[in-house]
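Purpose: get a first structural picture of the assembly so the mutagenesis plan has something to point at.
Setup: two entries, given in the order below. No constraints added.
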Amino acid sequence: MKFAQSKSIPASAGVGLKPQHFELILTQQPDIAWFEIHAENYMGAGGPMHQYLNAIRQNYPISIHGVGLSLGSATGLSVAHLNRLQHLVNRYEPGMVSEHLSWSRHGDTVLNDLLPVPYTKESLQVFSQNIDQMQTTLQRQILIENPSSYFELIDGDFTEHEFLVTLAKQSGCKLLLDVNNIYISACNHGFDAKEYVLSIDPTLVGEIHLAGHSVQQTQSGTVRIDDHGSMVCDAVWQLYQFTLAHIGNRPTLIEWDTDVPSWQVLNQQAQLAKQFLEVNE
Amino acid sequence: MSQLTLGQYQALFCQELLSQSRLALDYDQNTDSLLPLIDSSPQQALDRIAIYRNNVLHSISAALGDLYPVVKRLIGDDCFNGAAVEFVRQLPPSDPVLLHYGEAFIEFIAQFPACQNIGFIKDIAMLEYHYNRAFHSEDTPSFELSELRIIAPENLGELSFTCHQSLTLFQSAWPVQDIWHENLKDEPELIDLDQSTGSNILIYRQVMTVQVINLDTHCYQFLKQLSAGATINTAWQITSQHAVGQGETLDEEELSPMLGYLLNLQLFTHFQLTEN
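Result (structure tokens, whole complex):
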């Protein structure tokens, strides 16, 4: 399959675009390499969200990150939603388009979360088919993000990293490696995060995500929750440096979606990522 | 997973996420349980399912809270969250774009037991829903008033208009615009409901800003007719008859300033001349 050429996103640090920062970005034009948007937040017909995004994309590369396509749904993709995504991609010509290794819809019910799939041959077939449909519709290569998870399912045919690599090779997509998610799942399930990173073929990785997470106590012990509501923790920064050493420099995004901080705080996180990228060059 | 297909697992998990949490004991008696599929102790599996359940209910409830901030403030966080979770369980979204979710919450919150005595809550919810709809509606510029120069003065009465897609009109027995506006402030002023009258609400977006206006009754009736496609003459005629029905007389001289006021609001995207 041949894909349309994308405007490239630099292997530098970007941040998730938040309405709280629209005005500042437009008036002060801060020194940041790129922005990522959540596709579904820009699927209204018009209004200020589009006006701002139109203005911001004049000065910065944009990546579109989908959270609602539910690539792991056994019942297939919502064609209506895929068409809306296509419309958005055509309108904003993003440098990258990504989605998740998860599901969020069953039949007509949307659960608005990134839910875990069993890593079986059947799931591999479902993802391959759905990713193929997505790439064919968008006429471009997409990236798939590894999830954070709170339980593992029995009787899988693959580990998560085996599943990801097999899927990428089979469907021709790239990988978006979320280092925070690797760390969370490694802590929650007791596997070695570095071994996970080392098992990923560097040529398959097109983007890296970083975010903060929280720690919750339950009756059965401690769980790490992927809430994107705080600074990246030291252990994740260390895993990020390890990842850069193995994979090489890639566009790196700071995600901060709940309790969105001031631009200054968010930008400091991006600058830190930028420093690690520069050291790794 | 050897005994379940991916679709069966997803159906089971979907049901689990939207239901009340259960104890391990309940699961032991259930053959449709997710528990045996999870690679951990039953208690840990329950704890982890609860995290997903909480994420699902919290994220969708939070979207409703963003859509209905004044309703949330009026009834309090606990009451709102309780109502929102119940609503999500009964009517979960069917579209991943949550910008389009939550219209049925207007009726739901009016019927919610803890809110049944708050007479204006439904109309506040109506205002907020349509505010959000207007915020995301299509960008269509209004026509320039100077374009009307091409219409001969004697034909003006036969003009009709197309309204901006964001436009909503509704009447309330309560001063909903005042209640809504005050409750956007950090320190709202008290509103004496006994001294208040009803309202005629117009909501639409003017370029980047959503406007919420309480119109004069006659102006509301006039705009209602115009928005339904009536010509200026017909709309005025019906508005005058409506005034008579209310024991009032509408002077012909009021037409021009009323029309001028509405045209200046930039509500209309196109105008058409109806041929007789």
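Chain A has a mean pLDDT of 96.
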